[in-house]
Amino acid sequence: MAEKKREGEEKPKDMIASEKREKEKERPKEKVKNNNNRKRKDIFVYGNYKSYYGYRIDKNVKEDPRLAVFKREWFEGKDCLDIGCNQGIVTIALANKFHCKSIVGIDIDSDLIDTAYWNLRKAVRQANANKFKNSDVSANKNIPSPSSSNEQDLKEEYDLNTSVSFRQENFVQYLDGPSEKYDTIVCLSVSKWIHLNWGDEGIITLFVKIWRLLRPGGIFLLEPQPWSSYKRNRLVSETTKANYEAIFLRPEKFREILLDKIGFRSGQVITDKLSGTVAGFDRPILAFHK
Questions:
Q1: Separation of alpha carbons 106 and 91, rounded Å
Q2: Which end of the chain is less crowded, N or C, counting CB atoms within 10 A of the terminal residue's CB?
Q3: Residue 12 has pLDDT above 90, yes or no
Q4: φ, ψ for residue 129 (rounded to 5)?
Q5: Contact 89, 64 (CB under 8 A)
Q6: Beta strands 214-223 and 285-289, pairing class
């Protein structure tokens, strides 16, 4: 009887062990499900990546390599627009390096615009810290006070706060936009996302609206993504998938469209090789003149 009792006691243990094994089998499935959920949250339908500049630019490079191929005359003392500004890093860098009269960065993602303003405040604090540092060095070296003309220059020192601004906007939502005009408009690695989300109509709206917003003699700087890049991102949404299949105006036709259809008088490739750019982001940049 004692032996039968022990056998009876072992039976529930076997059942418990079996249940544990079943649970262990189920756990990997739950993980995959959670991982898939996390991946879905990280899909950026408009290319509005949160750490875009972190993996685009080589860590050993201090400045975005694209700035090295831009001419000062395109920006200095000019009213500028940066379409698809993301976190505002390039917008602020353009203002800092070339001293734009004004530069507006726009992006479809309001969170990125908030981050852009945070980056602007950070840049202003850094600029102010550098001023104090330089003034302390001058004082310690007993450098004579500047002349009245130099004092005037100091008063007119470049101010990022008054020159740089950001706003949330879907640039291709409407063909008719704000009444302001610009001397230079940049659109860097943005055209693919407009094309995938709004099709050929969206890309034409982009080009026509830019032409209308530019003053005579204005410059349009375009960095289009290649068609192979479209293919990699075509499945981020049902909309992009459908538009990808219907696209007729591929990136290699953009130059012809901008010159023959939109009305730009000239256009040339200003670079097709950027040192300091991570593989996959070394794209040609074109300059079009109105």
A1: 10
A2: N
A3: no
A4: -65, -40
A5: yes
A6: antiparallel
- Indicate the residue type of 268: Q
Using DSSP's 3-state secondary structure scheme, residue 83 falls into: strand
Residues 6 or more apart whose CB falls under 8 angstroms from that of 266 comprise 259, 288, 289
Number of H helices, E strands in the chain: 10, 7
According to DSSP, residue 285 is labeled: E
- Residue in 106, 78, 101, 108 with CA at minimum distance from that of residue 91: 106
Q: Radius of gyration (Cα) for the chain, nearest Å?
A: 27
Question: 286 with 269: CB under 8 angstroms?
Answer: yes
Each residue of 82-139: pLDDT tens digit?
999 999 999 999 999 999 999 999 999 999 999 999 999 999 998 888 776 665 544 5
What is the per-residue pLDDT across 247-257, written as a single tens digit (0 to 9) for each?
999 999 999 99
Burial of 238 (0-12, 13-18, 19+ CB in 10 A): exposed
Tell me the residue type at 174: Y
Joined together, the tokens standing for residue 51 give: 């750490």
Reduced to 3 states (helix: H, G, I; strand: E, B; else coil), residue 198 is helix
Let me know: does 194 contact 203? Beta carbons within 8 Å. Answer: yes
Residues present in the chain in total: 290
pLDDT tens digits along 219-274: 999 999 999 999 999 999 999 999 999 999 999 999 999 999 999 999 999 987 66
Averaged pLDDT of the chain: 81
Identify the band that residue 153 occupies on the pLDDT scale cut at 50, 70 and 90: very low
